[in-house]
Amino acid sequence: MMKSANQVVFILVVFICFLGLIHSSFANETLRLHVWDGYAPEGKVGKFENYIQQKYNRVVKLEISYISDPNDFFEQIRGKKADIISPGHNLLKDARFNFIKNKILLPLDLNNIPNYKNLISNLQNAEYSYQDGKVYAVPFAHGPYGLAYNTAHLNAPDSWGVFWDSKYKDKYTISLDY
Prior knowledge:
Blueprint: H1 2-18, E1 28-35, H2 42-56, E2 59-66, H3 71-78, E3 84-85, H4 121-124, E4 130-131, E5 134-135
Parallel strand pairs: 1-2, 1-3
Antiparallel strand pairs: 4-5
C-alpha cells in the first residue's frame, strides 16, 4: 500500500512541477529530482517521460538522486544540483536552512497546478508551506508522529513531555530529520 501511494505521489509531484517546463523554448529538458528512496520508482520514471513526450511532444528526462540525510536537501537545492526536492514539513522553515526566508525556494504559481484546489484544506493551509500569502510547497500527506518505547523501562507516556523529564536525560534518541 505504501509503495503504491509513493508511486502516485511521485507522478503527481513530477507532473505538477513539470507544468512550468512545458512553456519553455527548449526542445529537450532535464528535470533533476532529489527525493527519498521510493518516491521515484524506476518504472514510473519511464512512463512519465513517455507520457510527456506523447502529450506535449517534448523530451523530458528525469534525473533522480536519492537523499541519505535531511541536510542533503539544502545542499542540493542551494548548490543548484536539483530542481525539485521532497523535504519533510519540518525543514522548510527550520532555522538552519529556512528555505523560504532565504529565497532558496521559489513560490509556486497555483495556476499551473489545477488540482491544488482538490487538496484537503489542512494541507492547503499547512503553515509550513506558505509565507506572506505565497505557496512554496504542495504537501501530499500528514499524520501523527509515532513514539516507540520499551515497557520494561518506561510506563506508557501520556504526552511528549516525557522528553523533558530529567530522569530520562541521555536515555532516548530522536531521528535526525525530526
